Amino acid sequence: MTAELPFRMNAEVAAARAAGRPVVALESTIITHGMPWPDNLRMARRVEAIVREAGAVPATIAVLDGRVTIGLEAGELEALAQAKDVLKLSRADLAYAVATGRTGATTVAATMIAAARAGIAVFATGGIGGVHRGAAESFDVSADLKEFARSAVIVVAAGAKAILDLKKTLEVLETEGVPVVGFRTTEFPSFWCRSSGLPAPLRLDTAAEVAAFQRARQALGLAGGMLVANPVPPEHALDPATVGAWIEQALRDADAAGIAAKAVTPFLLGRIFELSGGRSLKTNIALVEHNASVAAGIAVALTCATRPAPT
Ligand code: PSU
Ligand code: MN
Fold this sequence. Notes:
The chain is an alpha/beta fold. 46% of the residues lie in helices and 14% in strands. The N and C termini lie far apart (43 Å).
């Protein structure tokens, strides 16, 4: 518990922060709205273990009964993974859950806000939100994108979810001044697939290089975070044509059912899970696990690597 922050930080995360040891933030919407029970809990536990194995402390973030909690205890994680009526919280409604004492899962945007306030510099997730297909009509652009310009957190993700308009998503990130770094790739990945047909704007190959890049941005007074786009490992990648057909069908179903606003992303992920006979979920879990290990490497690099002294 830290008194000076409007947050409840668990003892392990607080001790790591106080000692300057590496910490990796993890989101909770992926648990409550992105995957079915009990795979969601298994994934959340496994991801925390991967962060630990790589030498960092995991901090899964959620709002529990109105308290922004940085680092869920094992029992809290299990309860959240099974809970019903959990809010999906972004920048617009994070404080609403606090004010009304509700329980809510944090999206990429809300997790970035909480991590930045808690001094956590690195965050691992599956795929960020972005510009939805048909956004010219619906105006549906995830608040995740603008958050990158505001909160100084490095987010490791397998690009943005392929259900989105990835080209427009990259355009908005560029407009917002958000670096998008292909990690060991020159191509922007598309979540379940390694390719998207779109180039990654920047490329870096090591955790130390990512850490040095973020340090250079801060030295220049540039606010905000960056997206480290880490493709799913080849053995778990799905074929773009197969995924494309599931996405088209899911989008038609969403349209027919009149799904809008916050419900769109969970609906599409759930429908694609059904259409794929569970294959999309297996790949989703594999890519989150991979992102966790890369994020932990970056968190370690940020704490140990120091720039060479000027000569
Ligand atoms: N990545 C996943 N599964 C998810 C999400 C990301 O693998 O469920 C969530 C994230 O929390 C992301 C949110 O911030 O979807 C985006 O929702 P929206 O498009 O409504 O902004
Ligand atoms: Mn949206």
